[in-house]
Amino acid sequence: MGSSLAITNRSLHDQVASRVRDLIIEGTLEPGSRIDEAHLIEELGVSRTPFREALRTLAAEGLVIVRPSKGSIVRKLTPEDVFSMLEVLGHLERLAGELACERATDAEVADLIALHERMMACYRTRERMPYYKMNQEFHARLAELSKNETLREMQANIQARLKRIRYIGNQKPDSWAGAVADHEDMVRALKDRDGPLLGEAMASHLKKTWERVKDSL
Amino acid sequence: MGSSLAITNRSLHDQVASRVRDLIIEGTLEPGSRIDEAHLIEELGVSRTPFREALRTLAAEGLVIVRPSKGSIVRKLTPEDVFSMLEVLGHLERLAGELACERATDAEVADLIALHERMMACYRTRERMPYYKMNQEFHARLAELSKNETLREMQANIQARLKRIRYIGNQKPDSWAGAVADHEDMVRALKDRDGPLLGEAMASHLKKTWERVKDSL
DNA sequence: TACGTGCTATATGTATACAAAATACATGGA
DNA sequence: TCCATGTATTTTGTATACATATAGCACGTA
Questions:
Q1: What does the DSSP assignment read for A112-167?
Q2: Secondary structure, 3-state, chain B
Q3: Which range, of A142-151, A186-195, B147-156, B169-178, averages the lowest pLDDT?
Q4: Do the beta carbons of residue A84 and residue A76 sit within 8 Å?
Q5: How confident is the model at residue B6, as a pLDDT?
Q6: Chain A 35-94 residues in 7 Å CB range of strand C
Q7: Does B50 have pLDDT greater than 90?
Q8: What pLDDT does residue A188 have?
Q9: Out of B11, B88, B99, whose CB is closest to A151?
Q10: Cβ pair B143, B96 in contact under 8 A
Q11: What ipTM did this prediction achieve?
């Protein structure tokens, strides 16, 4: 089920929004740089209408800033922005951890732990990119296990805004090692279904993320 | 400062977004109902382009749902939606309370307490509408005092989604009395700059809000 | 040379026109 | 009568055209 024989239900502006979102997250469109409408619609092969609608969506998501009559730019995060996002994210994920311990099924917990094991395998072989992607997924999946849709949505939103930054975070080997240790703690607490402990682990993990990241801003 | 002599910098889609947002919040556009594009652009005196851009913004904010090729509807909150929002909001405001105690200036605290006093005056004379508005402002201002812009933004977003619902909340007299008691607790903790206590008060206030509201869904 | 002024080019904002899809309706057959 | 199919009408989606605002530049003046 799911995809089956669905053709192309998504409207153009949805597709454009996804595409441009990716361009921003992966850094092809640099933070602070102007978004050249004429150039991008050429590239994407669409007209201005769906493109501009997509921009409005991304603006509401906080990835883009529209300056009336002066064009749009990719939002550039100040250190204060990043700090405030990590502060909030830490508390959201604390909540997610607590709720997940109460609400997730055993199968869901097992799945998440399996993902963790694969992450650890990547760490041992120092494959940064796969590790990075699995890490994003780990946090997103934990938010899902809270069975709280609003929490999942907010977590996803902040995580998207921070994606660029966090990739930089684990550049230094000992930072990476630290993050891995944090994750071991989380999984242990999750296995035991110790909500408060997992919550603490999440919050502390994100506090440390700030330490790991702040110098590269 | 602020307004000074600025003429009209806001673009049409911004104005339309604000206008329609208000129509949704105040209930003129009913939850679950179709948004009649042709009719509304006539009413607002704008063309479809800025109107549709505004719709995309509201969709990203979670107030509107766009169903591809089938038009847009005002999002109708299920009880689960409301519960999940209040759960998250409770924890966000707990954080806001803790941070505000640490970071707000004495003057800011005094201002907020003054607002509280005015709210109480409205309660004594049973002026529901002014009370309701000041209450919204109270929570928004507390979020500001956290000096965390992300927190302020997320709080505002969830509060906007819930506005309709919460107006219903204090219909019953004893519910209203309960909310007032909660607020007295908050202000006491704020006066003492007791962060953990204020945090607890906020979280508990929003848990009770669910109790107050759930039957009218 | 430095600054201000007005013009031109370009980019942005909005309206309209055209295309495609969905819905409502009517007609015909079982 | 009920359902199916085809057609008309309405609504939504996208492209383009037009209007307006901004920014860059050349020129003139102090």
A1: HHHHHHHHHHHHHTT-HHHHHHHHHHHHHHHHHHTT-HHHHHHHHHHHHHHHHHHH
A2: CCCCCCCCCCCHHHHHHHHHHHHHHCCCCCCCCECCHHHHHHHHCCCHHHHHHHHHHHHHHCCEEEECCCEEEECCCCHHHHHHHHHHHHHHHHHHHHHHHHHCCHHHHHHHHHHHHHHHHHHHCCCHHHHHHHHHHHHHHHHHHCCCHHHHHHHHHHHHHHHHHHHHHCCCHHHHHHHHHHHHHHHHHHHCCCHHHHHHHHHHHHHHHHHHHHHHC
A3: B169-178
A4: no
A5: 52
A6: 36-38, 48-49, 52, 66, 68-72
A7: yes
A8: 98
A9: B88
A10: yes
A11: 0.93
Q: What pLDDT, on the 0 to 100 scale, is given for residue A7?
A: 46
Phi, psi values for residue A66, rounded to 5° = -100, 120
Put simply, whether A192 touches B (Cβ < 8 Å) is: no
d(CA A134, CA A131): 5
Percent of chain B exceeding pLDDT 90 equals 85
Chain A residues inside the 8 Å CB shell of B49: 49
Tell if A9 CB is < 7 Å from nucleic strand D.
Answer: no
For chain A, list residues with pLDDT below 50: 1-7
Nucleotides of D under 7 A from a protein CB: 11-17, 21-23
Distance, CA of B6 to CA of B9 (rounded, Å): 7
Q: DSSP secondary-structure letter at A171?
A: T
Q: What is the pLDDT at residue B8?
A: 60
**Structure token pair of residue A163:** 């994606």
Q: Is A211 left (phi over 0), alpha (psi -120 to 50) or beta?
A: alpha
What pLDDT, on a 0 to 100 scale, did the predictor assign at position B144?
98
In whole angstroms, what is the distance from residue B154 CA to residue B89 CA?
Answer: 9
Chain A interface disruption, residue of B47, B65, B150, B157, most A CBs within 10 A: B150
Q: DSSP letter at A1?
A: -
Span B13-30, pLDDT tens digits: 999 999 999 999 889 999
| Residue ranges of domains in chain A, CATH in brackets | 12-74 (1.10.10.10), 79-216 (1.20.120.530)
Distance in angstroms: CA A31, C1' C9? 27
pLDDT in tens, B92-115: 999 999 999 999 999 999 999 999
